Amino acid sequence: MNLMLRATQVAAHKDRKSYMISRQSVEFLGLMRRKRKARAVSAVLEEILQAARREQERADADLPVTAFYDSLSDDEAKEEAAWDQFALDQLPQEIR
User: How far is CA 61 from CA 1, 28, 76, in A?
Assistant: First the structure.
C-alpha cells in the first residue's frame, strides 16, 4: 500500500497546528512533496512522523529483550548461545 495513502487514511481526524521550522526544512518538505507527487506538504510531514513513530515503537519493543540479554551472566549467555545454535541447526539448510 502506498505510504502516502496510508498516512492520509490513518490521520482521518486532523488538527490544524502551526509550527516554526527552518527554511531548510521547508525546502526539504517542498522537495519531498514534489518528488512523491503528494497533494500537500502536510501529507509528507504526516508520513515522516508516522515513520518516526513506528521506529520509536520498534525501539521501545526491543528494550526488554536487550535488558534481558544484558542481564545474563557469562555462563547464561553461553547457554543461550548454545540453544540458539541448536535451534538454527534444526532449520532446513536452504532457510539458514
Answer: 24, 31, 22
C-alpha–C-alpha distance, residues 46 and 14, integer Å: 10
pTM over 0.85, yes/no: no
Q: 89: how many CB neighbours lie within 10 A of its CB? A: 8
Task: Specify burial of residue 32 (Cβ count, 10 A radius: 0-12, 13-18, 19+).
Answer: middle
**Among candidate residues 41, 42, 50, the one with its CA nearest the CA of residue 7:** 50
Give 39-94 pLDDT, tens digit per residue. 999 999 999 999 999 999 999 999 999 999 999 999 999 999 999 999 999 998 88
DSSP letter at 45 equals H
Cell 534444526 maps to which residue?
A: 90
pLDDT at 3 over 80: no
The x, y and z cell numbers of residue 96, run together, are: 539458514
